[in-house]
Amino acid sequence: MSKLKIAIQKSGRLSEKSLELLKECGIKFPNGGGKLIAESKNFPIEVLFLRDDDVTKYVEQQVADIGIVGENVYLEANLPVKVLEYLGFGSCRLSLAVSKEVDYTGITYFEGKKIATSYPFILEKYLKQQGVNASIEFISGSVEIAPSIGLANGVCDIVSSGSTLMSNGLKEVDKVLDSQAVLISNQALGEEKQVLLDKLLFRIKSVLNAKE
Ligand code: PRT
Ligand code: ZN
Questions:
Q1: So what's the ipTM on this one?
Q2: For the CA of 69, the nearest ligand
């Protein structure tokens, strides 16, 4: 009998909530800390624990059938997978920020400037929409220090409370995207897996409705 494979973040901001959602759907897993794969005893599903950056790619490549990932990460990956559901956790925004000393009057501030980000694809699209020509400096982490070390004039990064920006002497000036965790799926699941997915989706929707 076929099993559904779901990829979720191994350890990070979405991990606990992703597993919790499955539990709320009545899906039980044996407690085996540190494992990279877990199989449920009461639903034909297997969980693969991955880096969040890899979830979209593996769903697209059918290593997993479905996955849970931040919409920001899914959009940046720019791969042909489907978003099935918005899950209501992992909320954050992707925003532009500059040094708090800057006298910011609007998006044209960035014209001809350099912006550091881990989200070059989303940022490039946004800047194009806004008609702004800026150069994008890709950095994979610690983006917030870029202005103070002279690497860029501003940053485009994930913001939640805003305290990381503040402690790095930056201020949020423009929102590029609102994000939350999404359930994604491969576009070509076989019939058997589709039946399992429909069953799981029905449960997820009930759990989400009960929370509203
Ligand atoms: O190891 P792995 O690659 O799997 O994890 P990761 O470190 O890349 O991701 P992780 O766990 O930090 O975030 C996973 C997802 O959670 C992100 O892709 C977002 O969709 C979502 N999320 C929600 C956040 C935040 N809130 C958040 N605050 N992701 C990151 N942050 C970071 C942000 O980058 C910044 O450094 O927190 C800092 C800002 O927080 P505030 O509260 O100071 O504004
Ligand atoms: Zn990551």
A1: 0.98
A2: 1
